Amino acid sequence: MAILRIKNFPDPLYKRLQEQAQREHRSVAQQVIYTLDRALDQEKTVSIMELEGLGKELWEGIDALKYIQEERASWDS
């Protein structure tokens, strides 16, 4: 397993990390690993294909084709 050594770690940030580790019943090292793992997982990109169905309630009762045609017609005005 790798060893990570961090120089010039800001004291206020370390204090917050200690407090969070204590609340979560983890060591500081375990809290760092947990926090980094969660942060890196959040960076995953979302495919547009995963958005299917999101916001569909906004289009309830609206004819999408008619809406698009009206929008395009307004560009010429």
Please give a structural write-up.
It contains 3 helices and no strands. The protein starts with 10 loop residues before the first helix and ends with a helix. By secondary structure, it is mainly α. The chain has a domain at 11-42. The model has no long low-confidence stretch (mean pLDDT 87). The chain has helices spanning 11-23, 28-42, 64-75.
Average of per-residue pLDDT values: 87
State the low-pLDDT regions, or none: none
Quantity of strands, as a count: 0
Shape: elongated
The helix/strand class is mainly alpha
What is the element layout, followed by pairings?
Elements: H1 11-23, H2 28-42, H3 64-75
Helix pairs in contact: 1-2
Structure summary:
This protein is mainly alpha-helical and 77 residues long.
Task: Please tag this protein with its features.
0% strand, 77 residues, elongated
